[in-house]
Amino acid sequence: MINNLNCPSCGQKLKIQPNSWVCSWICSNCGLQINKKISGKTITPEIISQLCKDKRTAIMSGFISKNQKPFSAALVVQGNRIVFEFPDHINSNSTENNKQVVIRVESPSSGVAGIYITGPVNFQCTANFGLIPTRLAECMGVISAGRYLLYNQYNKRLVIKANNRDFVEYALREVIPARKEARYLIEYMWQVLGRFEAWEIKYEHQKRSSLRGGVVQSTFPRGLFPWLKVDIFPEGKNIRVQLPDDPSLIANFRASIRTAQGEGCIYTVPSGAEKVVRAWAATVKGQQ
Ligand SMILES: [Zn+2]
């Protein structure tokens, strides 16, 4: 895939050079060139690939200015040039501040994520996503929060603050996860975030002791999935449960309903546990 990129300006093939990618349409005037290092930041093939596909990247940290100041920016294709697009400096202005939502995710231990949404939409909870590492629990937390916001008709600017450096590097396409499941999760998250006007993610580590509300192993995250539609069919001594296709919802279902057997969106649960399933659905929808 990386060897087969097209110029985001003219559509011709890009060629790899020692220090850059250049447009192969040499006879013409395109001349687009993307350096492998821009203002001190390594531009990975994955970032290039996003730039070629979408003509822009997410807002990324890790650039260093000529005055040695670190800064964040998106890379954007403008004609045959690559330019910076700077995030608005919103934080200093309190009225502007109301126009963006901040999602903070913190996974204090494997599988569990604290999710804090602040801004025009406010929400917080702790969710258990089962036997997954903290970096993926934070990814699940962002997916859940993103879908919660979209359900609440918020799709403007999003600032994400995460506690796990690996997760932030995955999210910024600086590192590709080795495991297929992790790659699938990150891609799912990008799709959800792609529905917002703009998003940026920052690594902001906080000591575990500062976790608001402490470490709660809540299995039924109240109101986290307000959009949930669950179908339950009797099937002999069992019930069949059909869930929407969302990895964070499915992970919470599996962690909450220990007797559930199955994979993907369809699970079998003993009839005796139907009440528990219905209680889980009502709680995560926010009906109880
Ligand atoms: Zn070109």
Describe this entry's structure for a reader.
The structure is a single chain. The chain is α+β, with helices and mostly antiparallel strands. The chain has 3 domains: about 1-85, no CATH class; about 95-210, Ribonuclease H-like superfamily/Ribonuclease H (Nucleotidyltransferase, domain 5, 2-Layer Sandwich); about 230-285, no CATH class. It has 7 helices and 17 strands. Helix 3 (about 135-150) packs across helix 4 (about 165-170) and helix 3 (about 135-150) packs parallel to helix 5 (about 180-195). It is elongated. The site of zinc ion (ZN) has 8 residues, from loops.
Task: State the gist of this model.
Helices cover 26% and strands 30% of the residues. It has 288 residues and is an alpha+beta fold. It has 3 domains: 84 residues, no CATH class; 117 residues, Nucleotidyltransferase, domain 5 (2-Layer Sandwich); 55 residues, no CATH class.
Q: Which helices and strands appear, and what pairs or packs with what?
A:
Elements: E1 14-16, E2 20-23, E3 33-35, E4 37-38, E5 41-42, H1 45-54, E6 60-64, E7 70-78, E8 81-85, H2 94-97, E9 101-109, E10 112-118, E11 123-128, H3 134-151, E12 157-162, H4 165-171, H5 180-193, E13 198-203, E14 231-235, E15 238-242, H6 247-256, E16 261-263, E17 266-270, H7 274-285
Parallel strand pairs: 9-12, 12-13
Antiparallel strand pairs: 1-2, 2-3, 4-5, 6-7, 7-8, 9-10, 10-11, 14-15, 15-17, 16-17
Helix pairs in contact: 3-4, 3-5
Bound molecules: zinc ion (ZN).
The site of zinc ion has 8 residues, from loops.
